[in-house]
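This follows on from our talk about sequence and fold. Can you supply me with one protein entry, sequence and fold together? Could you add the entry underneath, on a fresh line?
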Amino acid sequence: MTGKKLKKLLEENGWLLDRIFGSHHIMTQEGSRSVPVPVHGSTDLLKGLVHGILKQAGIKE
């Protein structure tokens, strides 16, 4: 999964883009901590990283 697809998945689950710091898009949600998503073009993210981000966001696959 690419960073762009992961960002879109988070947005579909109520997360909003708060800011961009370099290649990391910081997503936030009311009452939750922020979740950084690395967006490096069309490069796939490692499986463990994707699972960790989804776990932080409280999204089950």
Notes: The chain has a mean pLDDT of 95. Residues 35 and 54 are 9 Å apart (CA to CA). The helical segments are 3-12, 47-57.
